[in-house]
Amino acid sequence: MKLNKTFLLLITLMISVIACKDNSQPIEITPDEFHKSVDRVVDIMVHDIFSPPVASRIFAYPNIAAYEIIAQQNPEYNSLAGQIKHLGEIPKANSTKNINYQLAALVAHMEMSKKLIFSEFRIEEYRDSLYQIWEAKNPSQFEDSKTYGLEVSDFITEWMNKDNYPQTRTMSKFRVDSEAEERWQPTPPAYMDGLEPHWSKIRPFVLDSSAQFKPIPPPKFSMDENSAFYKELREVYETTNRIVKIGDESEEVQIAQFWDCNPYVSVTRGHLMFATKKITPGAHWIGITKIACRTAGADFDKTIFAYTKTSIAIADGFISCWDEKFRSNLVRPETLINNHFDDKWKPILQTPPFPEYTSGHSVVSGASAIILTDIFGDNFSFLDDTETRYGLPIRSFKSFNTAAQEAAISRMYGGIHYRAAVEVGIEQGRKVGNLVVDKLKMKN
Amino acid sequence: MNKLKVVILFLGVLIVGCNQKDDLLFKNPSADQTGVKFTNSISETNDLNILDYLYFYNGGGVAIGDINNDDLPDIFLSGNQVKSKLFLNKGDLKFEDISEKAKIQGNSSWNTGAVMGDVNGDGLLDIYVCAVVGLNGFNGFNELYINNGDETFTESAAKYQLDHESYSSSAAFLDFDLDGDLDMYLLNHAIHTQESFGRADLRNKRSYQTGDKLLRNDNGTFTDVSEEAGIYGGVNGYGLGIAISDFNQDGYPDIFVGNDFHEDDYYYINNTDGTFSESLKKYFGHTSRFSMGNDVADINHDGWPDIISLDMLADDETVLKSSEGDDNIQIQKLRTEKYGYHYQFTRNMLFVNQQNSNYLETALMSGVAATDWSWSSLFGDYNQDGEQDLFISNGIPKRPNNLDFIKFASNDQIQKKIDNTKLVDQQALEMMPSGRTHNVIFKGTKNLMFEDKSDEWIEKDNYVSGATAMADLDNDGDLDLVVNNLNDATSLYINQTNSKANYLKLKFNYTNPNKFGIGTKVFAYSGGDLQYKELYVVRGFQSSSEPMIHFGFNKQQKVDSIKIVWPNKTYQIVKDIKVNQTLTISPEKTKPFNYNTLLKKSKPLFKLNDSTGINFVHKEDDFIDFNRQKLIPYQVSDRGPAIAIGDLNGDGKDDIYFGSSRFKPSKTYFQTDSIYTEKRIISVVNDSINEDVTAVISDFNKDGKNDLLVGTGGAHFSNKMKPLLDTYYVQTNEGFDGKLLPEFYENASVIRTNDFDNDGDLDVFIGSNTISNDFGKIPESYLLENNNGSFSIVQSDVFQKAGMITDAIWEDFNNDGFTDLILVGEWMTPKFLKNNNSDFSEEKLIDSKLSGLWQQIQPFDIDQDGDMDYLLGNWGTNSKFKASEDYPMKMYYADFDDNGSTESIVCIYKKGKYYPLLGLDELAGQIVSLKKKFTTYKDFAGKSIEEIFDKKVLNKAVVLEVNELKSGYLKNEKGHFSFVPFKSELQVSPLTAFIKYDFDFDGKDDVLVGGNYFGVTPFQGRFDSFPGALIKNENSLVLGNTIGLDFSEKSIRHLNIITLKGKPYLLATINNDKAQVYELIN
């Protein structure tokens, strides 16, 4: 008996030792880990320099990959398969495996992001540090979830690659028509080529076509002092002159600078040229999405849902906007003001390198605000600290819509858009946003 | 025995080792050895660095001259922030620092150039030191040290009104009004940033601080006469280079100013009445963009001054591909068309004087285009072989045009701080790579070619070298150099030529107050060669050289004669002069000099004639191939217009059909008894969508009336778009009816007719040079057989796969009675297609590899041996393309990124590897994955094509090659052909048109050649300086500008002979310009 007891004890000990060895804990993924992953991608995008339309694509696909994974598990959310253009059902996870869907979603998000940005090592560093933690916690769950995340990422990649992006890379440059004064001309100081002239050929997610919300044409070009166009031009010139005189304390100047969101501003100083870089308009609204999620205490799945829906609206917003830009091909205020009023005039913001109408920031702000209001409600007040790392202050807003309105008009204060591009632009964006809200049945 | 062998071997090794050291043309004695202890130390501070002052690294000055008249040249060195120094030459390369005693140390905060000149005309060299004043807290003024004759100086700038307080870089002495005293051109620099280009006419508005000044010596005070003399002085004059020379050889000195950044260089022609006409655009097709130092010398023995202008293009791949390159084509358009600037490209330019017509620009061909961040250039016969060599000083402490800095450095924290504070300027500076690099020396050779001897002639240092001056410091007859380095000791380059080759040095004792004879010209004749020099001491960059003339005469013992032309336009001749001596020459028995004798006495053969009624202007459409195919090496859409000559209305007189570019109607000129008049042929005009590239008028259906066949192309229409179908108009009694040709779609380049099957009607070869949007794929050319006026395709790969055809001729090259066909084209070898009784097969008749970018072929018995040779127009060697038999230029053609459209990547060989011509941004603009593979420019720079692409990717590419870029001729040697290149002047641009005719009425045919081509990106520049040439035989050639042709800056497409009233005229059809008609002058 004594022996037996000892034997039993031994066995128990042994079992507990073995159990100790396989002392797996469930891996818990917090919303913050997803936010950080998004932040990391935003930083890399700033470094690598992506134009606003290309940046919008880089946000959308990783979010969709992550969303499709959590929709497999969380009955609250519906898959986007069949709802957005040509997305089929992602592979199902092997039911015999120990899958942590949230982990898989984050893996897929990082993997997709890595494919879309240039400086891959900057994602790998972050990814590997997370992998190490997860592996230590629960190697089998980690391994299975990672495998699934990568599998979905491959599936989403295959779908993504058919969006015409690769083909648009080799399409022709935008041809500047230097004879017609109403047509867009490259602007100082870098006189860059027109950016992404074929972006309307990118496959949209929800829009029927890039021209679905084709806006009304801009006021007819005329340098007649009584024409609507001339008056709008004059308004840009006089407004910026007025607020520049007041200086940096001018509310309008502050608004213009806060919403600058230009990923590449070229600067010449002495013998040097360099670029000051900020996030894109899309990234700013992704930042507001983060703030909203945190403020509302959104859980992991809701966080992904919010990012996904917003980034889809932003991406379609850019497609819609770029379609109009290269259709109306309208000259920027800076060109006309330099030619007609003052050859030394400079806008408060650097004129970005593409045609004027409609304002891209207005479109995506309008679209994003609709989505965020739909998810988080109207009168959702928040403190926007997205731009603090670029030396800009925090601004507070009563609602997403007031933020969007301010973002839109900031372009006129900044001297880079006429009023029509702002007002029609935000409407165009709202239409895109409403379409996304109406068409996508994401939440039950 | 064995031991002896070892010893001998050992000695041999020693000797070889020693020899290598002895081969150095220049030795650099240390400052301790010579006593020339001077370092231009500058220190970056938070308040003063390249962020605050764009020319922070431009360095100081050097002036050399004998200040105490002991026949030993003394050295003056200025530094930016350190005190200036004067070193008295004590002989044997020993120098004494007499700065303190001489009182020349200076008081300005920031000194720049230093020059010597006899300002007060007392026969003693004075010193003028430039300063930057009124910027960054810099104070002081330009200082003038008047030589007291006792090795001391008195600062007297105010007295002479030369105490300017502006942003000066240098000053040059010249007697522009020939009144006998020395005036001054003061070179200032702008600090205007690049925030906006600003319009070129900014130069018309004078700015005291930045504008250049012409200062006339009015009996000892210098009056600013810039305004009335027509000298620009705007806020955009970034003056860094200044050269004085009588460029047009009329006896009055002219001025060349090199301006940095976007401002054009200035070429001031002296109007001989105290004013100047700035004439850059008239004489230069393009200039260097970031112009720095420059220099002038006659490099080709024609007695006319040639110019080099420096820039900052690197040859080294790691530097080249990580530095900002040229503008893109649209920005260039904006600069030139909207802002009024001239064409400027980032590289050194070598301008060869063509006597009152456009300069030939040959830097790429001559091998001197890329010497990195270059400051000073000095021509001199350093090895005394009778040819001008070239020394170029180099380097920059930090490269501000580094792409990683521009795109990425600024990203992080530094960025914010640059904007807000100056605290981390240092950090920003450290992110820029060093641009320390060795100086460069070229050996001059015949035929405008220079050979890089930096590895053999000089020690490769690692200094940042700027201002450089030349002198015979040790009085051994050869040319020594003094280089003012930044933050390192000044270098002396002591020439070791010594007695290995002969020299002649000349000094002048001219009339007061220009004792030193500034502006004196010397024509030296020896051994059948002319050498020409002109005495201006301010040369290179921020410096002045010893006031003397130096010639090398190799092994010749005497100089046949020298002709000295004095500034007052008189001359004297000295004969039979012994070499290896220094002559001091005073005016003696002078006679008036007739400058007209310097003009080349070619008999004009052509005279523009506007009375023929031909007023055709070709306007190219605004399609830019590079917008669609961003990596292609040149355009293919601009090869028109077509021209065809023949009787179109049955009146027995030849008429002229001109094709047109896309969407523009063609034009037809009918010959009447007195004039050509334009009349529309409705059915032809209606086809104006087409771009007409080639055309033929002939009676194809044998009805006694001529028909018209037009080959269309233009590379913008693609696939099976109708405008790619050629058009065939048959003449009826009512007019012309469009008839169908067999349905094939191509970009036609050439149509040639011949009855190849001897059935009595004209058959047609139609060549094609490209497939739209698919450059690199072989297009199909066709042979059409005529059957009673309707055509059918002769199916044969010999034609369909012939290549990228540009020209063809029907020639019975084997004299078998059947007309054979010779085809030329791009990325291919000329093809001899033998006609075997209507069946064609290729014959290998050329003895060497001869794949070129062939443009034209012309039969001509150039060697006058009775058999037919073939002249071949190629691309020329004056471009960034490089090709040789061992190392051909390669074009990789494939769909690199599998997106359904192809790319073509051109690579050239450099030091063991093949590199793509284009950089990361251009390549990644098409193949985005490269941005992932190379996340910095540093990663990419220096990578060969094999390192850039995976083997798998490269393996799927078709590789096309070019091993010969020179134009030349196929010399017929009993039915086989060997290639003989033309001389250098014919290699400066692509040769695009030939015509054979007896232009000089000597009973023998000549061939007239036209060229120039602009369908390339600013990376290549513009091939604009070929003036045309008349080839009489293999040894006789005259350039077009000397015989009355105006072909420079014109892209000639066709040359034809037309007749009017029985008289022949030359018709030159030009792309995007007015056609020219010349009368032939007998």
Automatic annotation (TrEMBL), chain A:
Question: Domain Phosphatidic acid phosphatase type 2/haloperoxidase spans what residues?
Answer: 322-435
According to the record, the signal peptide region is 1-21
Output the PROSITE patterns linked to this UniProt entry. Answer: PROKAR_LIPOPROTEIN (PS51257)
Q: Keywords for this entry? A: Signal
Q: Which CDD domains match?
A: PAP2_haloperoxidase
Stored Pfam families:
PAP2 (PF01569)
* Protein name listed in UniProt: PAP2 superfamily protein
UniProtKB/TrEMBL annotation, chain B:
Name the InterPro entries on file: Crtac1, FG-GAP, Integrin_alpha_N, UnbV_ASPIC
**Which stretch is the leader sequence?**
none
Keywords linked to the UniProt accession: Signal
What is the protein name for this chain?
A: Repeat domain-containing protein
Where does the record place the ASPIC/UnbV domain? 517-584
Give the top-rank taxon of the lineage listed in the UniProt record for this protein. Bacteria
Q: Read off the SUPFAM superfamilies from this record.
A: Integrin alpha N-terminal domain (SSF69318)
Q: What is the lineage of its organism?
A: Bacteria, Pseudomonadati, Bacteroidota, Flavobacteriia, Flavobacteriales
